[in-house]
């Protein structure tokens, strides 16, 4: 079986490598007389990097890339609109990626100087590609990977209706050292709140950044020419009120190597193929560069198509499967690009909650049918009994999650230490002693030292932070509350401080800039509503749980109870309930919960202590998990793969 690939860019080269692994005869045809090693750099998502990592295992060639940890969107006045952790993203030079892909080829497979002209057909099936230099390449399948101006797409579907160009970019790579760079690497974008203008930069190494300036084409009236000096003056003029680092990067850039990018897209095609001709990458679909999707999509396209060709009985079935898998995703990218374009061009028409990230589109929570049992759970970030209750809460989720909904409410355990009197606890030193006693009694890692070394003045700030997190994403807010508890009970951190609240928020995928704003507004209002509800429902003990069924049955549990007691309560309210068997493998448990104390793992895995400890140590030695240890116990943490 012979595959003729038209286009020697990233999509075509990746497809050729993967098809050769399936024993296809492959010829890649590139229009340039030499393979194009020009270009700047790009961001790539986890999906695209995963394909490249598999290729790296098959060669000694290395692929240089820079992991990108955080994204931040600021205003020119330094007001931060978005700050969020990026999972699995990296930046790399186009030159480096092309060199890596070329290392899989020899000159017999790569044919340069071939500009596509037309196909030769036998009835409706293409049998050869004809090039303008007179060359003819016969094959069984033909892959159009010839970019956004694809002649193959035009041959299959006619003239493409591109969207009008209303935004342009100027892009360059500057020799610029990001001084005082934190350990986490930042993709920084600065965007005007008044007009369509933005500047962004992404580190490529400790001494290089790729930068871009996006602008409304209406601003181009002030561009006097396209010489390097004129383009530099144009950038300096538009970015005059942007922060100092912007000006430093522009000053460090060689404008003789910068280029203009006309941003445009087109609607999703009805198919990516006709008969034995199929499209890949920008030839098949095109999203606006706001999404940072292009290169990842090209690589994932190639992988998806080649997997389909390997598993389906016919080419027609494979091409249909490829479209079915990829079209919903690329359609989403096109729509997101257009939404981001509107936000960019008309910032004054949108509030800051509407801002979205590249390739990120989440609902606040998945809307499901109401479950038979609703639970109101009143808790507090510094409630030690609530910390001990965590394994039970997690097991309830695993075994009864199909039948129960748990809604978290904050109870306001510690307003302040002024006139505080909760039984034996009247001052921070009392809390320290009590925590140590509770930890030993329940064999749970709790360290009371925070009350001696850096005591919290109140539990209200982390409670308000949790309510602010719920405004963003219900599920991530629950992870965030768990992380705050780990910080205070195990790591001795004063979780009233913003540095710890922000760290927890970013680790849980929350936007910390929006969180900070909401803590000063809507989060406070939501917290006060919880306090009023707590008072109305006479909540005086934590945890307190209220159970309600669809037919109006109600029950209440206060304080610590065993898992068996919770099961009895659920069965009383729903006699025909069927719990899920716990069949998760250890690695699946860590994927579900990320962090677990040793006691939690034993409890959730239903294993004897010795067997559980052996599994945990083996996973640790294999590099699958990490651990945090204090004098009262261990916490085991899922260890994500490096990019």
Outline the structure in words.
With 643 residues, the chain is α+β, with helices and mostly antiparallel strands. The protein folds into four domains: 2-64 and 94-163 and 267-352, FAD/NAD(P)-binding domain (3-Layer(bba) Sandwich), CATH 3.50.50.60; 167-262, 2-Layer Sandwich (D-Amino Acid Oxidase, Chain A, domain 2); 373-573, Glutaredoxin (3-Layer(aba) Sandwich), CATH 3.40.30.10; 586-638, Orthogonal Bundle (Arc Repressor Mutant, subunit A), CATH 1.10.10. Helix content is 38%, strand content 22%. The chain is built from 21 helices and 24 strands. It has an eight-stranded mixed beta sheet. Strands 6-2-1-10-17-16 form a six-stranded mixed beta sheet, sandwiched between helices. A four-stranded mixed beta sheet has the order 19-18-20-21, sandwiched between helices. β13 (197-203) and β14 form a beta hairpin. α2 crosses α7, α10 (390-400) runs parallel beside α20 (598-605) and α14 packs across α15 (498-507).
Task: Outline the fold blueprint.
Elements: E1 2-6, H1 10-21, E2 25-29, E3 41-44, H2 46-56, E4 66-74, E5 80-93, H3 94-102, E6 110-111, E7 116-122, E8 125-131, E9 136-138, E10 141-144, H4 151-157, E11 167-175, E12 186-191, E13 197-203, E14 208-216, H5 228-238, H6 244-252, E15 259-262, E16 273-274, E17 277-279, H7 294-311, H8 315-345, E18 373-379, H9 384-388, H10 390-400, E19 404-410, H11 428-441, H12 450-453, H13 460-472, H14 474-489, H15 498-507, H16 512-519, H17 522-536, E20 544-549, E21 554-558, H18 563-573, H19 586-593, E22 595-597, H20 598-605, H21 609-621, E23 625-630, E24 633-638
Parallel strand pairs: 1-2, 1-10, 2-6, 4-12, 10-17, 18-19
Antiparallel strand pairs: 3-5, 4-5, 7-8, 8-9, 11-14, 11-15, 12-13, 13-14, 16-17, 18-20, 20-21, 22-24, 23-24
